[in-house]
Amino acid sequence: MVLELQKPRPIWQIMFSTHHTDIGLLYLITSLAFFFMGGALALAMRIELFLPGPQIIADSMTFNRMFTVHGTTLIFLFILPFASAVGNYFVPIMVRYKDMAYPKLNAIAFWMIPPAGALIWLGFADFTWYAQPPYSVISSPAPAADMWIFGLKILGVSSVLGAINFVVTILKCKHPDLPLSKMPLMAWSFLSSQLIIIVAIPTFAAALLMLLTDRMGVSGFFDPAVGGDPIAYSHLFWFTFHPEVYVLVIPAIGMMYEIIPRFSRKPIFSHSSGVFAFIMLSLVSFASWAHHMYATGMSFTEKTVFMIGTLAAVPASAMHVFNFLATMWGGRIKFATPMMWSIGGIALFFSAGAGGVVNSAMPLDFITHDSYWVVGHFHLFVMGTIAFGSFGYAYYMFPYVTGRMYNEKLGQVHFIFSFVGAVLVFFTQHVLGLFGMPRRVFDYPPFPEWIAMNQIITFGAFLLAIGAAIWLGNFVYSMGKGKPADMEDPFELGGKYYYPYQSKTPHHVGY
Amino acid sequence: MSEHGNWAEWVYIGVVCALLVWVGAEAWNVERLVEHVPADAEVIKVTAQQWFWSFEHEDGTIEIGELHVEKGKAYKFEVTSKDVIHSFNIHDYVVLIDAVPGRINTVWFAPDEVAEHEIQCREYCGLLHYNMRAKLYVEGST
Ligand code: HEM
Ligand SMILES: [Cu+2]
Ligand SMILES: [Cu+2]
């Protein structure tokens, strides 16, 4: 592993580099920066909702723009680039190749992200991250909406370029001595998630263009006033974005597969069932998109089909959970920071999945749909599972990237604040949804239960924010002043067999 | 899996699948019953627009921002929108259906108690989405 921060280089050398670890570093810094920006919006929204009536945000339009940019940022500018960061660092090493297959393309894919981020943040659109027509066609103010559309367009191209690069690197540049079946599960997670991207993204790319021409008034695909159909957009959108949620979650599971066996000091319980579950997930992810659309007036048959498609994805996810628990079972577990995040992430992944089964059962969805339940549900995935897995991995790769150790105590404090915060925020949001509070609201009527629950949620959000601040301080300080890491075994796990697929180069710990 | 000869994983997957089949079958059955609109249901036309609700009864009376119905009767809502997508929601009776311009979606309910309930919009529709509310008054039969 290249130690970028130990031998300082001028920043432009990293910026114009096409080496995979440099691109990885650029992705890493960008994604974390966007995490803090999106998080700041979340905190502002939570303060606003602490009490009914306007608090700190001037008007509902500002609030609507904030949740739109918050959601867009955290999905497209935090989670996805974070996965690309990890993939860039580790996938070439895992398949034993010198770099990504197409280094220049790799750099281009990264450099599309900052301009797209700028378009989204400078525009500050208000039509939620669904951009649902006809609202987004007839009601959403320009130029913000158009800037968002172009931003997403660019991000889509960037994702597809990155995905092609990963798939080719894995399938074509893999060392001939390493059969696919023996490839580490994290590399498998990238292979399956990037294949999903290639199949799923073009649909939304088309929908975005149609949306743009609708907004320009030269077409009417989605505008019923001129004979279009807004529900067609929903289908195109969710055909891309239901699979996309697996694109987000699969690499995070892959990261846990790196952490859990090492910190349990035991080989993975079953490599083959991990592979099988990844393949299953990527296939069934395409069978459930319209479970987001039960309330649009679908027929009973359509609803039934998509309910079955949705439930079909559950066994594969459950297999991953089993694999993790069975790996930890009887292991000498070391509860260091990366491991704590992974365990917490698995617990919340399980809860999120259980909630998902409820959503997919059609009569129950009419209770939960578009209420705060849904906000709690998907945050258990995006924050509780994906961000937790990613944070754990950020701690895990910290010594390999910087050559130094972070402060372990503070890492654990970060985890504890975040875990308690996440439980308070996201579980309470589920209950608030059952009490009927709709999502995407700037204000709410002063029902006593709603007020009490909103206050608990905001309190939890502060715990999350404190944790994040501790994290930032820890990393920034340790990057320069942390104690030098023992690169053979930075986490003091001992023994080479904790790196099962490393038997060829047992001493090369950071791969 | 086979290299571990593991029965525990198979049992676990079996239990998960059985639970899923049960949830699916139960959901299918309930939804089938819930969707069956009684033949004598009175029709109420619901129109959403930014940012209020209007209701038209069978006898032609129009109400805006409030809806009066009688306890013990069944009502079928024919829901549509004049501008963007909204979602018609009486949470206390699990009534939820999108109001989509250019389409009429139906949903029904039969209030069984004299009470007041909240009607709200559950799909983001812009500036005053958060305040797109109406009151439902369930009254005793006269
Ligand atoms: C740090 C903890 C977080 C808090 C306290 C938080 C809070 C919020 C709040 C208050 C909303 C508005 C909900 C509504 O009115 O519908 C929201 C929406 C959303 N959040 Fe988060 N969030 C957090 C982390 C994340 C993360 C990590 C992601 C994704 C990776 C994410 C993705 C989203 C999305 C997609 C939306 C929906 C935006 C929309 O309605 O268009 N959030 N969040
Ligand atoms: Cu979905
Ligand atoms: Cu609305």
Distance, first to last CA of chain B: 69 Å
Radius of gyration of chain B, taken over Cα atoms and rounded to an integer in Å: 21 Å
CATH topology grouping of the largest domain in chain B: Immunoglobulin-like
Bin the strand percentage of chain A.
under 5%
Mean pLDDT of chain A: 92
- The tally of structural domains of chain A comes to 1
Distinct bound molecules: protoporphyrin IX containing FE, copper (II) ion
Low-confidence stretches of chain A: 497-511
Helicity range of chain B: 10-25%
CATH architecture of the largest domain in chain B: Sandwich
Q: Tell the overall outline of chain A.
A: globular
CATH architecture designation of chain A? Up-down Bundle
Strand/helix succession of chain A: HHHHHHHHHHHHHHHHH
Q: Which residue ranges of chain B are poorly predicted, with pLDDT under 50 across at least 5 consecutive positions?
A: none
Order of helices and strands of chain B: HEEEEEEEEEE
Broad CATH class of the largest domain in chain B: Mainly Beta
Q: Largest beta sheet of chain B, briefly?
A: 5 strands, mixed
Spatial arrangement of strands, main beta sheet of chain B: 3-2-1-5-8
Beta-strand segment tally of chain A: 0
- Rg over alpha carbons of chain A: 22 Å
Topology at a glance:
The complex is a heterodimer of chains A (511) and B (142).
Chain A: H1 11-15, H2 20-49, H3 60-94, H4 103-111, H5 113-123, H6 135-139, H7 144-172, H8 185-216, H9 230-264, H10 271-284, H11 300-311, H12 314-328, H13 337-360, H14 362-368, H15 372-402, H16 408-434, H17 448-481
Helix pairs in contact in A: 2-3, 2-4, 2-17, 3-5, 3-7, 3-9, 3-15, 4-7, 5-7, 7-8, 8-9, 8-10, 9-12, 9-13, 9-15, 10-12, 12-13, 13-15, 13-16, 15-16, 16-17
Chain B: H1 7-34, E1 42-49, E2 52-56, E3 62-64, E4 66-70, E5 75-81, E6 86-90, E7 95-99, E8 105-109, E9 115-121, E10 133-139
Parallel strand pairs in B: 1-5, 4-10
Antiparallel strand pairs in B: 1-2, 2-3, 5-8, 6-7, 6-9, 9-10
Bound molecules: protoporphyrin IX containing FE and copper (II) ion (2 copies).
